[in-house]
Amino acid sequence: MSYGKDDPVAEVACAPQSREGEPGREDEPGRALAFGAPARAPRKTEEEDDDMELPPLDTDPNAGDDDADDGSFDDALPELRDDGGDPLDDANAQDLDVGLDVDEDADAGSGDDAEEGVDVGSLDEDLATLDSEESALDEDRDESAFGDDDAADLELDATQDDGGAEGTGENAENDVDESALPELDESANDEADDEALADELLEEAARGKLPPWAPSRFVVLEGAGAPVPCTAVTVCGGRVLAAGDVVLVVDEGAHAARQTGLDTPSTAVVATDEVTVVASARGGLLVSRDGCASATPVAGFRSGKSSVELAATPGRIWILHEGSLWSMTGREGTPVLAREGGVRAIKAAGGTLVVLATRPEGAAIERLRGDDEAWQRAPLEGAAAELAVGDPRSSLAVAAAGRRVAIVSPRGLLLSNDGAHSFESVDLHDVIGACFAGDEEDAPLYALMVPPGNATSYVVRVGEDGDVSRVAELRGPDGTGLGEASIAWDGSREVVWIASRLGLVALGPARPH
């Protein structure tokens, strides 16, 4: 038998049985023989099985103990390598004579079964390839390519429950209601959504946060005004005018309001010494030249769906409609376009018209003192510009010929005492209207605060030094809120008039008895 070059075997010398049949003896002088086992048994053919002779098995476990004890066995081992190399190197093992030959074809197996092998068939039989077969994931695949038996094994009957292992038998797209999904392009509603979110955040921040009560409070003056729903109020000299379901007027020296002959629902009213102009709920204009006993439509004015805001300076009526500013002069005057577009709010005080305007170059407060003077423009920056542009509900309160300006919005209140060149923020929210208590430089500001979802509204006083305090509260008899409301200062009576769905009421210090 011979070994291959790489067969791992123990490097020991093997010899046939000695003459006496005992291993490990010296049969020839000077030559010690020892028998060792190879690392693995060699393969042999059936023919070699009969010819091969093996040494007898040593069944005595104690045999050789004497030799082992006296070290004769170790002494009998030959020096395998005397060249100082690795004793385990079997590079020359192929030169050893082990007494038998091994057929090179023995490794191919023995017996008939080994020669015939196992027939596993063609490896590429019944296998789908990308070049010859369509993918089973292809939506357009041929259903006939799969047999009925295969389909029966893969498909699950609708009445059977697989515990979710194979999913449902229905297409998941059928469970999606596309009509309930939002449109992908919602850019048109982004601004409205942002405003709604900002309002909600402001409401949460201001909820439960109210200014402290002032040491002295206002009370509702008995007998003043009228329990008729109103939306706007203005003071012209000694007269008080209110617009609502009907037009109310409080004459000079009186406190109770009377109904005029203008029974048309209206949203705004303003007056000069010559005429009274009323904005109807339908967007038209009515002019009265007989103290509101009658009125006629204003010729040359196109009505619209948006509301109309009115202001008055000596001898002139100013009209804000759909972002444009119009003016009327004289008893028979017709509206003339004064500014096309970009106007957000108007207010007049001391013969000066103040305008909150937005232009391509930015937002600004503009003042017009008379026909012989040009517009004076004060650009807005920071919070003032953001409030003016971002909230369409912004309004104005002015005093001292426009040197004192307040920008009013439910989102905040900004106050300027230098002609709108700089503004200070007042810690108030949910303010829907404000007015200065007079035309002086140190006149306090009264703001109408209407918290959302609260039936109680408050009148808040902002002093010259910026201190804020509540001076009055309003609540309907059945818990009804104010709704759309307006506030105006009456210097001749030193009271604050408030027009709301609760009616026209006057608030002021308690009268001594």
UniProtKB/TrEMBL annotation:
<protein>
    <submittedName>
        <fullName>Uncharacterized protein</fullName>
    </submittedName>
</protein>
<feature type="region of interest" description="Disordered">
    <location>
        <begin position="1"/>
        <end position="180"/>
    </location>
</feature>
<feature type="compositionally biased region" description="Basic and acidic residues">
    <location>
        <begin position="19"/>
        <end position="30"/>
    </location>
</feature>
<feature type="compositionally biased region" description="Acidic residues">
    <location>
        <begin position="98"/>
        <end position="164"/>
    </location>
</feature>
<dbReference type="InterPro" id="IPR015943">
    <property type="entry name" value="WD40/YVTN_repeat-like_dom_sf"/>
</dbReference>
<feature type="compositionally biased region" description="Acidic residues">
    <location>
        <begin position="63"/>
        <end position="77"/>
    </location>
</feature>
